[in-house]
Write a structure and sequence with these properties.
Elements (H helix, E strand, L loop, with lengths): L1 E3 L12 E5 L7 H17 L3 E7 L2 H5 L10 H10 L4 E6 L9 H13 L1 E7 L12 H11 L3 E4 L3 E2 L2 E2 L2 H9 L3 H8 L3 E6 L6 H6 L4 E4 L10 E9 L2 E10 L10 E6 L10 E11 L7 H35 L1
Parallel strand pairs: 1-4, 2-3, 2-5, 3-4, 5-6
Antiparallel strand pairs: 7-8, 9-14, 10-13, 11-12, 11-14, 12-13
């Protein structure tokens, strides 16, 4: 996949470009349907599939306290690449760019710079100053400039509208099974392992890998989760506590993960943590022994959940193979 982080780096328009544009926070199933439509049209037209997005997310600039993101830019790039897109254009977004009229955006950026010949958008997409660039506007400009506009309708899973807003709500409620239905994958947090107070192994009997969690980011419901930990290309089971560790009177928000069958020094190393299920809320225990006993119970639940997830994955693969 070709990646452009600045419009000035695009020297000539892309060949027979089939384009979609959006913020694509989370790259959920609805976004994936858009990408599939773009890839299919590009293949039939003998052209390139192009995704146009922004960094930072426009609402992070226009309303800094108004949105918590599902995915980082790094995750978004990875997921768009996996969707089979040929070209990703990430436009730097600031308050000056926000003043760009919709007409200028279509004429100067989408048409002249990117070379759109076929445009695919979501059912609720709008852009430009004051969101003046709605679907009716795009269709009118498409007729003027000679490119068709295809609208991909809303997608539902188990009666739930697939949207970034709904996914954020579910994450904050700890409803990870429903989050997975709308994302098409597990919700993931990632970061470098921090050196903590090292109580997990010495005092509690369960060493943990700790990631700092920012209150400014999308934070899952506090408590204990069944998790998968991805490190160095391998997947391990685990249990994670996201919270403030009230038993020890901590005040820093941390994700502490006990990784099963794991004995590596990973301080300073990046890991990824998939959240499969919220087991229980965070609780202050009366003693280290009481905490340790509860962790034993949490681990039993986690092993069963992970076994079930593995069985579901095998069944899913068998269904695909038999089709």
């Amino acid at each position: 996949m070709q990646l452009y982080r600045n419009l000035q780096d695009i020297k000539v328009p892309f060949d027979r470009a089939v384009v979609t544009i959006g913020n694509f926070d989370g790259v959920h199933l609805g976004h994936q349907l858009l990408f599939s439509e773009v890839v299919g049209r590009a293949y039939r037209n003998g052209g390139l599939s192009v995704v146009v997005t922004f960094d930072p997310h426009p609402l992070k600039v226009l309303r800094p306290d108004g949105i918590k993101l599902i995915s980082s830019t790094e995750q978004k790039i990875e997921l768009i690449r996996l969707a089979g897109i040929d070209v990703l254009v990430i436009i730097p977004f600031d308050r000056e760019f926000a003043k760009t009229p919709a007409l200028d955006f279509v004429n100067n950026i989408l048409f002249e710079t990117i070379g759109v010949q076929d445009l695919v958008v979501g059912y609720d997409y709008a852009f430009g100053r004051g969101r003046e660039g709605n679907i009716d506007f795009l269709r009118k400009q498409g007729k003027v400039l000679g490119f068709p506009v295809t609208v991909v309708e809303a997608h539902h899973e188990d009666g739930m509208l697939v949207s970034s807003t709904r996914i954020r709500e579910l994450v904050m409620d700890g409803r990870m099974r429903d989050v997975r239905k709308l994302l098409g994958r597990y919700y993931q947090i990632r970061g470098e392992v921090q050196r903590g107070r090292q109580r997990g192994g010495k005092e509690v009997g369960f060493p943990t890998a700790n990631l700092k969690v920012s209150e400014e980011d999308l934070c899952p419901k506090k408590g204990v989760y069944v998790t998968q930990v991805i490190y160095d290309g391998k997947i391990y089971g685990g249990v994670s506590n996201i919270g403030y560790n009230p038993t020890f009177g901590e005040n820093e928000l941390v994700a502490e993960t006990h990784i099963f069958d794991f004995n590596h020094d990973i301080y300073g190393h990046p890991i990824k943590i998939n959240l499969l299920r919220h087991i229980r809320g965070e609780k202050k225990f009366n003693s280290v022994q009481e905490l340790s006993a509860q962790i034993h119970l949490d681990i039993e639940v986690a092993h069963e959940e992970l076994s079930q997830a593995a069985r579901e994955q095998v069944m899913s693969c068998e269904e695909k193979f038999n089709r």
